[in-house]
Design a protein that fits this description.
This protein is α/β, with parallel strands linked by helices and 153 residues long. It is 42% helix and 14% strand. It contains 5 helices and 4 strands; from the N terminus they run βαβααβαβα. A 4-stranded parallel sheet has the order 3-2-1-4. α4 packs parallel to α5.
Length: 153
């Protein structure tokens, strides 16, 4: 991506529901207003959300259209396939939605693991967006952020 403004590795973490519009809106905001450039973009979602991310951002070229609108080269917003994280249940199966108490518990455990892992590098700074997904997922992401968040996040 672009040049970094400080020594931290800038990581954007976004909770994404069934539609990935929150991703493009967030990237537009941070880029248009020149607030921050991200070295890594992590999307936390369900298997349904992951399918829609791939369809909308890549097949329908929403990410490429955003890059064009912001006068950025194609590929400026790089999202690694490994960073589109589909939440899993306790057996390792991808959750297609968060409907039950059991789904919520499994999602919470996975979200806490994700945030724990992302905050292990002291040279990273997380920007966390909790706008997408059913209310339990962003609420848990916010809770995990307050638990694992560091001064620089």
């Amino acid at each position: 991506m672009g040049e970094k403004s400080n020594k931290n590795i800038e990581i954007l973490v976004v909770s994404v529901g069934a539609t990935p519009q929150v991703v493009t809106e967030t990237l537009w905001y941070y880029t248009y207003y020149q607030i921050r450039e991200f070295d890594r973009i992590v999307l936390v979602t369900t298997s349904t959300g992951k399918d829609n991310i791939n369809k909308e951002l890549y097949q329908n070229k929403r990410l490429e259209s955003l890059e064009t609108a912001l006068s950025k080269k194609t590929g400026y917003f790089e999202i690694s396939p490994e960073d589109i994280i589909s939440l899993k249940d306790s057996r390792g199966n991808e959750l297609d939605d968060i409907r039950t108490s059991s789904d919520s518990e499994d999602m919470a455990k996975h979200v806490f693991e994700i945030l724990r892992d992302l905050t292990e590098d002291i040279n990273s700074r997380l920007t966390i967006v909790i706008a997408g997904g059913r209310k339990t997922m962003p609420a848990i992401l916010a809770l995990a952020s307050s638990f694992y968040g560091r001064d620089q996040d």
